[in-house]
Amino acid sequence: MKDVQVDVLIIGAGPSGCVAAAYLHKHQVNVKVVEKNVFPRFVIGESLLPRCMDHFEEVGLLNALIAQNFEIKSGARFIKGDTICEFDFAEKYTAGYDWTWQAPRADFDFALTEELKKQGVDIAFNQEVVAVEFDKDGASQTTVKTENGDEYNIKAKFIIDSSGYGRVLPRLLKLDKPSTIPEHSSIFSHVKELYRPQGTEGTFITFDVLDTDTWFWVIPFSNGNTSIGFVGKTDFINSFEGTPEERLAEMLKKSSYYYERFKNVDFLFEPKIIQNYSKSVTQLYGKGYALTGNSAEFLDPVFSSGVTFATESGLKAAKLITRELNNEPVDWEKEYAEYIKKGVSVFASYVKEWYTGNLQTIFFEGADNKEIKRQICAVLAGYVWDETNPFVKNHHRLIKTVANIIRLEKRSTQ
C-alpha cells in the first residue's frame, strides 16, 4: 500500500475514536481511523452512562444509535442480601440526560462506524499499528501492518490513541504505570434468556453484591440476550476450578437472587476472564499525541464509567486538536490533562470507597436521604465534572464522612 498523509490519525474505532473522528470530520479536519479488529467484534463495557449521550448528540451520532433500538437504561439497581438500592437518573442532582443504553458493544460500535463511513470518514479495519516515530514538532510517522502482512506508513500532524484495552501508545512509548485501584479480576459471558421475567425485573441493570469485594452484574439487552459476570479479588476468581464454563456455572450459585434465573441457561460463548484489569499511565498527552478513554485509564467497571470517560476524553482531545490546527493556543496540561484527571479522580474515589465498604454503607444503610441520593446519582450518571455537586467537589472525603455518620447513627439507635 502507498503511504498516507493526514492531519490526524486515530488509533481505534471504539466510542472514543468514533466521537473524536466525527467531531474532526465535521470541522473539515483530514482524519484516518485505523482499527486492529474487524467489526462487529466483541468487547466488554456494555453499560453506558447518560453523560455520554451529550457527546453523541454533539457530534451527530445520536440518531444513528437511537435507530438501533438498544435497551433503555434509566437507572441502576444494587442488591445486597435483602436490601435493594435503586437509582433513577431522572432524579439526579445535575441537569442532563436521564437515560442511556445497555447494549452489546459489538452492535453498538458497529453502528457508530457504519454511520461514520456514511459520513465519509476513512476507517481501515484489520490493520495493526506496529511502530511510531515522532519528530520534535510533534509530527509522526506510524507504521501499520495490513491483514496480508504488508506495511505502510501514515504521516500525521497529531495522533489520538483510542485503542482502549490495547493501549497502543502506552506500550510503544512505555507510558504504563501501576493503577492505584485495588486488583480485581472478572469472568463473564452472554446468555440467551428464553424465559426472561416480564417488565422492569427482566430489563433492569443490576449489581448483586455478594460481599465488599465481590459482585455479580446482570445487563439485559433488547435482543433477548443478557450479559452476566462476576468481579472479585483475583484470588477469589482463581479459586474456582475447571473450564471457564464450569467456573462461571459454579460461581452463579453464589447469587441467591439470580441463581434460579440463570442456572440452566447456556453460555453463548466461552466465558472470558480478565485479570487485574485496572491500568494507568504516566502522562495523558505528549508532543503530537493524546491518550483517550481506556487507553489512558482503565478503571474498575463497578460504575460503568468506561464508555463515558472514553467519549468525554475523545471529544475533548478532538476539540483541542482542531484549535491547534487553526493556530490557536492550547494549554494541554490545563485544558486536557487536568480536566480529564478531575473526572478520573472522582470515578476512582467512588471505586475505592466502594471496596472500602464506605459507599456500600451509604447505598444500603443511608439511601433514605433523598438529597444525598440525588447527588450520588449524578455521579453514577457520569456528571463527574460538575463541581456544584458536593459529592463531586468533595469526593475525596465526603463519602467516608457520610458513611461514618450513618454508622454512628445506627449504633446510637441500637
TrEMBL record:
It holds the Pfam family FAD_binding_3. It comes from the Bacteria. Gene3D superfamilies: FAD/NAD(P)-binding domain (3.50.50.60). One of its GO terms (molecular function) is FAD binding. Residues 6-165 form the FAD-binding domain. Signal peptide: none annotated. PANTHER family: FAD-BINDING PROTEIN, SLR1998 PROTEIN. This is Tryptophan 7-halogenase. It comes from Gelidibacter salicanalis. The lineage of its organism: Bacteria, Pseudomonadati, Bacteroidota, Flavobacteriia, Flavobacteriales.
